[in-house]
């Protein structure tokens, strides 16, 4: 849980940390940054004073094991201690404790120039609801590992833009700003480094007005807390989990469509790719069709859960659930089951007519079994979707 550390007034910047309701809150997450935190707090306070507005600097100390909290307080910051470790945890605690109309975020490692604070506030004053810095064209030598600069950040930002159409150039920049009144709409929850991605995704889904402009990125002071592969995977995992269309729907549709084509062509004895295919190709096609149907069903359930329990909105899913009901799914599943049962009955009748000898209808048997399985999947997945829909208000 978070605890509030009492702060003393800053003799260096009395106007910035006064009792007046602040316009700007600069929130700085901090974990063992004794080497840098005083410089960061001082720079932030000086930027607020130069703006001539009421403001505060709030350090969300993430249960540091050094003197970071004491040093930040001595420099003039208001300090809270968030004992649950994590980049997102620190920011969530900092947001909850901040009082400003505008919140400016920046790391405690000297990588960002706090003199940029007025530009972020000005963009919010001009109508933006979130402002994000773009570091990628202004990275100082040694400030960012090549793996992050040329592989990790471009790939993750590209996927985020592909999945959520944000149009952001640098989705993981740590210096950004937002209006306090949008926090409830964002409903931020993640506790780790994926917090940066969550902010952008939620802002996109809520159709916030996002501004972006270039800033410089400097070499950090002290030891980095970032784990390239672990934190990169957490970002990627978060993007996939929050995009059922790309994680489930698209792959499921491709698998089911390809499998259906194979079953139709092979089952009908048609040639494709210049040759006839046997029962093994039919089994492969049936497998693709069954797996694809299951993945599609999982995607629809993921959409339903996101819509009914997490407040997500997706125009495609909203149109689909407005048009289709439980009965449509039951009829579709029932139709597959019926065809499968009829084919099975034909196989059984043929077997009986041949004196219960060896079966030779392998192709028809594979098709019948596949249709039965797909029909059962659709039938019961429809019930599951309906159960999730009971949450609908």
What do these coordinates show?
This protein has 393 residues and is of the alpha/beta class. It has 2 domains: 240 residues, Alpha-Beta Complex (Spore Coat Polysaccharide Biosynthesis Protein SpsA, Chain A), CATH 3.90.550.10; 148 residues, no CATH class. It is built from 13 helices and 8 strands. Strands 1-4-3-2-5-7-6-8 form an 8-stranded mixed sheet, with helices on both faces. 40% of the residues are buried. The N terminus is likely disordered.
Brief sketch in words of this structure:
By secondary structure, the chain is α/β, with parallel strands linked by helices. The protein contains 13 helices and eight strands. The protein folds into two domains: 2-241, Spore Coat Polysaccharide Biosynthesis Protein SpsA, Chain A (Alpha-Beta Complex); 244-391, no CATH class.
Main attributes?
393 residues, 2 domains, Spore Coat Polysaccharide Biosynthesis Protein SpsA, Chain A, 53% helix, alpha/beta, 8 strands
The tally of domains stands at 2
The helix-and-strand class reads alpha/beta
* Mean pLDDT value: 87
Order of helices and strands: EEHEHEHEHEHEHHEHHHHHH
Q: Mind describing the biggest β-sheet?
A: 8 strands, mixed
The first-level CATH class of the largest domain is given as Alpha Beta
> What is the H level of CATH, i.e. the homologous superfamily of the largest domain?
Spore Coat Polysaccharide Biosynthesis Protein SpsA, Chain A
Estimate percent helicity.
40-55%
Pick out the low-confidence regions: 1-15
Total strands: the figure is 8
CATH architecture descriptor text of the largest domain = Alpha-Beta Complex
CATH topology of the largest domain: Spore Coat Polysaccharide Biosynthesis Protein SpsA, Chain A
Strand order of the largest sheet: 1-4-3-2-5-7-6-8
> What is the global morphology?
elongated
Which range does the strand content fall in? 5-15%
Rg, nearest Å: 29 Å
């Amino acid at each position: 849980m978070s605890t509030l550390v009492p702060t003393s007034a800053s003799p260096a910047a009395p106007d910035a940390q006064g009792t007046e309701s602040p316009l700007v809150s600069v929130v700085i997450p901090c974990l063992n940054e004794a080497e840098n935190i005083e410089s960061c707090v001082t720079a932030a306070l000086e930027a607020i004073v130069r703006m001539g507005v009421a403001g505060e600097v709030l350090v969300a100390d993430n249960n540091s094991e050094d003197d970071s909290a004491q040093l930040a307080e001595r420099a003039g910051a208001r300090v809270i201690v968030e004992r649950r470790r994590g980049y997102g945890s620190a920011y969530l605690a900092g947001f909850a404790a901040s009082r400003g109309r505008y919140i400016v975020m920046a790391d405690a490692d000297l990588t960002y120039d706090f003199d940029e604070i007025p530009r972020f506030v000005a963009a919010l004053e001009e109508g933006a609801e979130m402002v994000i810095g773009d570091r990628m064209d202004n990275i100082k030598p040694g400030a960012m590992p090549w793996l992050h600069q040329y592989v990790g950040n471009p790939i993750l930002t590209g996927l985020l833009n592909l999945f959520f159409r944000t149009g952001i150039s640098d989705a993981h920049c740590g210096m950004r700003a937002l209006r306090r009144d949008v926090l409830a709409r964002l409903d931020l929850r993640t506790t780790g480094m994926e917090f940066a991605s969550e902010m952008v995704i939620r802002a996109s889904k809520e159709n916030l007005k996002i501004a972006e402009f270039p800033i410089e990125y400097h070499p950090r002071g002290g030891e980095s807390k970032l784990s390239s592969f672990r934190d990169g995977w957490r970002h990627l995992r978060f993007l996939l989990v929050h995009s059922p269309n790309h994680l489930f729907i698209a792959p499921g549709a491709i698998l089911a469509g390809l499998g259906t084509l194979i079953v139709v062509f092979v089952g009908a004895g048609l040639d494709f790719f210049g040759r006839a295919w046997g029962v093994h190709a039919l089994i492969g096609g049936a497998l693709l069709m069954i797996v694809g149907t299951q993945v599609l069903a999982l995607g629809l359930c993921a959409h339903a859960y996101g819509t009914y329990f997490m407040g997500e909105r997706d125009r495609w899913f909203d149109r689909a659930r407005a048009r289709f009901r439980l009965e449509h799914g039951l009829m579709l599943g029932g139709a597959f089951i019926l065809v499968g049962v009829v084919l099975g009955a034909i196989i059984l009748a043929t077997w009986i007519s041949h004196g219960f000898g060896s079966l030779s209808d392998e192709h028809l048997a594979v098709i019948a079994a596949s249709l039965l399985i797909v029909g059962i999947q659709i039938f019961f997945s429809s019930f599951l979707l309906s159960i999730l829909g009971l949450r609908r208000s």
